[in-house]
Structure prediction request, 370 residues.
Amino acid sequence: MEANSVRTALLTSVAPVAWGSTYLVTETLLPPDRPLLAGLLRALPVGLVIVGVRRQLPAGVWWWRSALLGVLNIGAFFALLFMAAYRLPGGLAATLTALSPLVVMALAWPVAGERPRPSAVVGSIVGVAGVALLVAQAGFAVDPLGIVAAVGAVAVSAIGFVLVRRWTPPTDLLTFTAWQLVAGGLTLLPLALAVEGAPPALDLRAVLGFGYLGVVGTGLAYVAWFTGVRRLGAGPAALLGLVNPVVGTILGVVIAHEVFGGAQLLGLSLVLGGVVAGQPAAREALVAVSRRRSADDDGDRVGDLPGVGVGDAELVRPGATGLDVGGERVARDRGGDWEAGPRAVLEALDLEDRAVAAGVATGQVDALHR
Prediction:
């Protein structure tokens, strides 16, 4: 379970890593001032190619579900995100969109029955603070329409991610993703033509840029992302999305020679710390390490007699062993029943054996347990 969760988290991280490179590719390879065209060419061509190869179309309710998810996760999200990027400073836009994990967790509870874990909530808050430090800019002007666009992008994508978590697709995730890409691309097509006009002639650099964003930054990224949403849960997957501005910042420093100081270093540390702290895989790894250390400390002895290592054992009910274990050794479970730790049970058994050997009735051993 632990290894599978770690692999899934790493696979899901492919998406925000690819998205983090979008800023640099857009600035250096794509034609300027064409955000809707960029969104359209990111989604529609690769979606059509995958549908053509897979030769499977939605059926029944999945026509409208795929259309809705395509609008939420691709069409409306891209349009609002680009509007926010054009109207807000990059730091403010990134900080607002970093609120996505908290919004996703808030929606996932009532819609998908996914209760947010405290560690994930804390990790999200720490991550948002880290993003603010990582990309903060002083003296920016607030554009109300840009704020609305950024909040809208967070809201529509959060709803889309939660619905992906709730609805089980009738096909593989590659085909399922392609349906959404086509629906989202078709949503952007008339909007791009109406707002930006006919597309300009594309040189080789632009073709390479759009090809990278379509295949890697959209097709591959969204398949990895939806895999994480379904396997890890909407909240933990959304938290991994905070890797996006980290990658963008690192690429900007390495390739574009942007400034990187103490505040950015602290912000990067907070983001990565928050992401790791909120992942189930990280908690499983810590529990496994703790259990192994406990097993090493305990050894394989109980009392002075050879026994069984109990570091990795589960809690057991005293009633199953016939023991009446003292209150200081037990913890009450969710159902209100007493459960005894494995060490307490084995120590009590050891005491019983010694008491019986000394001629004490087993019914009177309870006093020895305390």
Residues 300-341, 360-370 have pLDDT under 50 and may be disordered.
